[in-house]
Amino acid sequence: MKLNVLHILNKLAFAGTEKQVITLFNNIDLDSFNMFLFCFNKTDISANSVIPDSIRYFEYQRREGIDYEIVKRIVRIVQDNSIDIIHSHNWGTLFYAFMAAVVTRRVHIHGEHGKEHFSETSQGNWKRLLLKKSSARISDFFITVSENLKEELIQEWGVRQNKITVIRNGIDSLLFKPDLSAGEQIRKELYIGANDIVVGTVGWLRPIKNQSAIIRILPELLKKKENLKVVIVGDGEDRHKLEKLAQEHNVSSNIIFTGHREDVESLLNAFDIYIQASLFEGMSNTIMQAMSVGIPVVAMNVGGNSELVKDGITGYLVKPESSIVLIERILYLSNNRDICKEMGKNGRDIITRDFSINMMIRSNEDVYRRFSKR
């Protein structure tokens, strides 16, 4: 008999968590599992354009504050579709999924992919702490994308070792592969010279992604490398602030904001160096994509980044706010193309060996089957 699994997301988005869930939908064994998806915030993204036809999709527009209608909707979906497992993703879904699982007495698996709430006040909030502790005791199982997050759930939430596992994100290394011609086409499109050094980054433009740090060090980089260009791929709430910051630092002519793009694999091939300035990452999809394409990565030593970037082997890890070291690493790589190639090859080897989509899918299926007799 097939297992019915209901996934719960805050909303459909072109972000790491959502992309990994959709990858799961596209590759899971449909002879063994029926997949369902409930999102409680509507977006402009058409579900039909990103979700396979085999997936039953439910949508609701959340109201301000705690909206108990969400719990009722989940309970109804569970009862109407004989759901066996509720699989919630990230902090914003935990309360509603946890409550629905308690009411319906279904298996509840919670996955943490990163930190959505990044502030001291949120970390100290007693209501959040109560939910973490209650969930750790009552929910059936937890999945994190990195050892760093796993340790956080054990230490801060109180999750037992036998109730948690790490399932790392999977990358399509056939899509994200070295492609010289694709990179050349992007450079022509963006009016980047053949001899220019391109330092690029991909992600939502929001405070936690910290793209402002890249803009602030650019004046110093340009003193040593006049032919350096920064390409920032993505869109979000901080775009206007970042464009204004570039103007204030007189570096607008050396920065290209592409906005949201669907051809990230081609854009990455136009980069010489990938930079990740985020203040926190669970298991960065974009770092994995850059490594899969075969370019060196310079990243902040936060979250799960050290589980991906091997310092001095696939790139460099830099302490947050260490702008001098960040500048030094970028300049060193920009002056040593052979080192870039070697690090890029090392990175791709790691991705193809340890971060395949197949490994991610099979690991999720194994967790679901563990609860098949419940």
What are its keywords?
six-stranded parallel β-sheet, Rossmann fold, 374 residues, alpha/beta, seven-stranded parallel β-sheet, 2 domains, elongated
General description of the model:
The protein is of the alpha/beta class and 374 residues long. The chain has two domains: 3-170 and 356-370, Glycogen Phosphorylase B (Rossmann fold, 3-Layer(aba) Sandwich); 180-354, Glycogen Phosphorylase B (Rossmann fold, 3-Layer(aba) Sandwich). The protein is 43% helix and 17% strand. A seven-stranded parallel sheet has the order 3-2-1-4-5-6-7, with helices on both faces. A six-stranded parallel sheet has the order 10-9-8-11-12-13, with helices on both faces. Helix 10 links the parallel strand 9 and strand 10. Helix 3 packs across helix 4, helix 9 crosses helix 13 (323-334) and helix 12 packs across helix 14. The longest helix is centred in the last third of the chain and has 18 residues, at 337-354. The chain is elongated and about 65 Å long.
